[in-house]
Amino acid sequence: MDDITNSSRRLNESLHLPVLVIIEPLLLPRSCILNVLRRELAEFEILDMATVQSLDSTSALDVRVVALSIADKPIGDPSVENDLAFVAECCPNAAVAILSNHDDESTAQAAMQRGVRGFLPTSLPIEVVVAGLRLVLVGGVYRPLPVTGMNRMPGFEPPDARGLASAYLTNEGARAAFDRSVTDLTPREQHVLAELELGLPNKLIAAKLNLSQSTVKMHIQHIMRKCAAHNRTEAVLRWRGRLPPQSRDHDPGATAVTET
């Protein structure tokens, strides 16, 4: 009851903002996730709920993503299947992201086969989870696991190619390189890099993150240096794990930050 009351209390504040809903039965992890996402995704209203039944209170809202925590349950568990069906009924226009304690390929594939657009193992760093949710929020698909055979899945329809590639890491070495590069970046640099991955020009990145264009250029220069990249495209490719990591002693020099 408190969960429904708290959600309803924020209704008026949320009417004009796109909404991301976090569904997590346990209060402590739910509160921690909520605090992080409200800080990192300020352009969205973040609502937290203990159960999917509370989604009934969101009918007047523009719900873009529902992030459903399933803990240790397999995707095929009847309770998970029922929750996914309820989400689809209450929020037919929302994408679904799954928070799972499992990070194996079979669980990821089972999620994608059911139309889930974000697979977020709880073993991921919070910065990566935020970047994954950003990708889902703009229409992409996020899953930090190999995609061998993905295009052969029955009923699977590839999403917008702008956001797809960054989520798919082809091997453990690339994945480790990705995790190291993200760890080395500051939170603001991670935000800028996530927007670069979407192909946004500096002007739009500045407007979206409420920064000046000169500040955006400075962050991009730092990102390029830390990724040992000569340009913004190469930095994104290294972030994706598509290019082999180079020594941090390599200095691309004072490469111009090209506006795209």
TrEMBL record:
Please list the residue ranges annotated as the HTH luxR-type domain.
Answer: 178-243
| GO MF annotation list | DNA binding
Enumerate the CDD domains for this protein: LuxR_C_like
List this protein's GO terms for biological process. regulation of DNA-templated transcription
Highest taxon, organism lineage: Bacteria
The segment annotated Disordered runs over 241-260
- PROSITE patterns from the xrefs? HTH_LUXR_1, HTH_LUXR_2
Name the InterPro entries on file. CheY-like_superfamily (IPR011006), EvgA-like (IPR051015), Sig_transdc_resp-reg_C-effctor (IPR016032), Tscrpt_reg_LuxR_C (IPR000792)
Q: Mind telling me what this protein is named?
A: Response regulator transcription factor
